[in-house]
Design brief:
By secondary structure, this protein is an all-alpha fold. The protein contains 14 helices and 4 strands. It has a two-stranded antiparallel ribbon with strand order 1-4. 42% of the residues are buried.
Length: 321
Amino acid sequence: MNAKTIETSRLKGFVKNIPPVVWILLLMMGTFSLFAPGYLEFNNMRNIIVQSVPLMLVAFAQTLIVLTQGTDLSLGSQVSLVTVCWVLFMQSGIPFYIAAIMATMISMTAGAINGLIVSKWKIPPFIATLGMQNILYSIAILVTSGSSIYYAHDVFRTVADAQFFGFPLIVWITVLMFGLTWVILYKTKLGAHIFGLGGNAEALVLAGVNVVKSSMMIYAYAGFLTAMSGLLTTCRLESGQPVVGQGWEFEAVAAVLLGGSSLREGKGGIVGTIFGVLLITILKNGLNMVGLFSIYQNAIIGVIILTAIVIDNVLRRIKDK
């Protein structure tokens, strides 16, 4: 086999291993660039990355739950409650960093309770987390009377405006969270338990793993990631908003599925989730730039996401044959 044949074989192998969502992403970017002048400029690409940050963190959390063959519908409400709690704690005179820790602990506690209910009492994740969603939204709306709480603080502006190497600090925080989550997922026992719960939970029990404890830790860490999303969202908006995360859990599920993770098999990972989130963010950004009325955007986004998921599944099946 000559060198040219080897290189051709390697190139075909590389192309074959590229996730289908990447091709869909490139196609979408190319389409929007034809109808929106300046779409591919650096500033707009940077804006897309910045806009994707809050959903990216929620999607990382959702990925972990999906890999256990679950779905957490309370993630958006956790984001909302964190924004509200952080502002309220600071308004009461608590230092911002202690207030941030307290708000994060609330989100992690909610996640741990989800994990306890799902694993110990065998309540389907969809039902358990839907109940938690309603509870957390009710609390957030009750303590704010349903209104946003605006609060000016230097830390908000610092986090939102600080830049390093051309990108805002919130982007680098998200990169750090990705690295931490990647290490947990692929280099720790907890990560092995995540894949075990999604693949064969009975085998974990037979191996002597405390499934209840592992589930609580997984859901609690998901709560930590959503808390980070809530804190960064608060910095961007300089306010606590009781329903700011509404619907994010469903967009996160869409991003996870677009990224190649499976609800049934417990297979996938967070790398693909990044492309799924970018696809959703690029879609929203592109529709805004072409001037489409917002009343039509949700329907179009839903149709395109569903179509993309179907195409992704079909292409993966073809590739696996």
